[in-house]
Amino acid sequence: MPLPPMITIIDDDESVRLATESLVRSLGYGTTSFASAEAFLHSAQRGHTACVITDVQMPGMSGVELQAQLKAAGDTTPLIFITAFPEERIRRQVDAAGAFGFLAKPFDGNAMVACIDRALEAASAAR
Amino acid sequence: MPGHEAGAERAGGLAAPTLRMGWMAAVAVLCGLVFAVDTVLPFDMAIAVLYLVVVVFASSVFERRGLLMVGGICLGMTGLSFLISHIHDYDLSSVMRAVVSLAAIAVTTLLCLRNQAATRALRDQARLLDLSHDAIFVRGPTDIVTYWNRGAERLYGWSRAEAIGRPAGALIRSQLPAGAEAEFRETGLWEGELTHIAKDGRKITTFSRLSQHRDAPGEPSGTLETDHDITERRLTEEKLHEARAELAHVTRLSTMGELTASITHEVSQPLAAVVTNGEAGLRWLRREQPDLAEAVVSLERMIANARRAGDVVARLRALARREEPEHVPLDAAALVEDCLLLLDRELSTHRIRLDIDLPRTALTVSGDRVQLQQVLINLMINAVQAMDGLPPERRILRIALARRAGASDSATPPLLALLVEDGGPGVGPDALASLFTAFYSTKKDGIGIGLSISRSIVEAHGGHITATAAPSGGLRFTVTLPLVKETVS
Description:
The complex is a heterodimer of chains A (127) and B (489).
Chain A: E1 6-10, H1 14-26, E2 30-34, H2 37-41, E3 51-55, H3 63-72, E4 79-83, H4 88-96, E5 101-104, H5 109-126
Parallel strand pairs in A: 1-2, 1-3, 3-4, 4-5
Chain B: H1 2-12, H2 17-40, H3 51-61, H4 64-86, H5 92-131, E1 135-139, E2 145-148, H6 150-156, H7 160-163, H8 168-172, H9 180-187, E3 189-197, E4 203-214, E5 220-229, H10 231-258, H11 260-286, H12 292-320, E6 328-331, H13 332-349, E7 353-357, E8 364-367, H14 369-386, E9 396-404, E10 415-421, H15 429-434, H16 450-460, E11 464-469, E12 475-482
Parallel strand pairs in B: 7-9
Antiparallel strand pairs in B: 1-2, 1-5, 3-4, 4-5, 6-8, 9-10, 10-12, 11-12
């Protein structure tokens, strides 16, 4: 049996982070999580994760900045954004940069499942 | 004072000239009668002593000069009578009789003069009491009014004639504060605020002094009460108090407005977690092999997160509410923590590090939770804003609580000292002095009302708030509040 795909979750709010992890694990995936984008970038997980679910507004580096930084480094890991302040401007910005989802908190479980499916398909197609 | 003189005349009942002529005639007739008896009837006794009746009578109807004249006339007539009846056959006993009469008349005249002077002094004093704007009255041991000045007539609407002889309690229904009665009975003195009801039903607030009068054996014989009307002042103060509370409420709302984004986040984050935990829980249960342990964890997290959201909402509701401030014992550290909960997001978005120094022992102050939170939140937001644009290592918000001994005498209670200090650029000495002035602001778009409100709140709690330069160069606010005596549990 192959190892389940690893999904990374970044959110500064612990309660949301834990809940999202639990949801993703219930779908049968493995998870790792970080409280900040910086922590993820400096971790061994970078480049070895199938998909990243990240909060947009965080103290320090934002989700949007993370996307820009990964893209600049040629990292094509698919990104799914979650946010408590869904702004159309940011949605357009991250979509244009190739995001696989932009979900308002509290997000719908099925919508998240759909985003993850698309992201993982794209990731496996790219490989 | 001409008016005063006129009053004196009137009070003596001597104003009408006809009346005075009548009294003079009566005195003259009395004098004549005594003279006739003394001169004509050959009694071997001091008939002239009867002149005393004339003098005493005159003293009740004439003022000083009239009385002196009557006394002189009586002395003269006694002498004249002696000359007429004894000019040829005076002996020792008749001379002695005449001398005794003369002495008696002279002494009586002098006594009457002194009595008149004393009465006049008393009357003047009573008139002075009438000049007072304060209500002054005396009531006997059974509460019956025995004296009632003009001020009391004006203030309470009862005339002197109506008031005297009636119980004061029925007239003005005075309300004594708890404990006043006992204190008055014990010390015979009391002063403080009283409320009364005037004749027309108006409620009157007075600053009053009560003093007990005792007779020779020490039994209470009456109470002198002086009431200074402060109804207007009280009303003004109440209005001022209301206006201040209203202003505090409005600034609180505007502070909350500034914090909307942070507060929304504080509520929406746990709510989002509740929903996601619910989704996760359902999925754990709906797996081919339900994972009950994971589902239980999801449910527990749902509850914890919903509680967290509820707490924030409850605190917000308390802050937004417009209520009369109420004083309850409050733990200072809990107060600080409550504020930090609401400001958590604000601090993290501004990348502020907290340096908190809370003591281990509980420090309890008495106060209104919402108002004191308002002061703290205001100070913390100011500190956060002061550090905008600084390098991250200087963005430190320092909060410290400490117990401080009161002044040297043991009567003053120990104090709570609460420090809120920022690492910002600070302000100049001139600005430092004006910080608490209303409508003064160092912020670009500040109204300058927050600190002024904060100060009035702190002072209403019996405390002080000061601003000084912190060693780091930033601004340090120190709030001191009296500590509540710890109750031994």
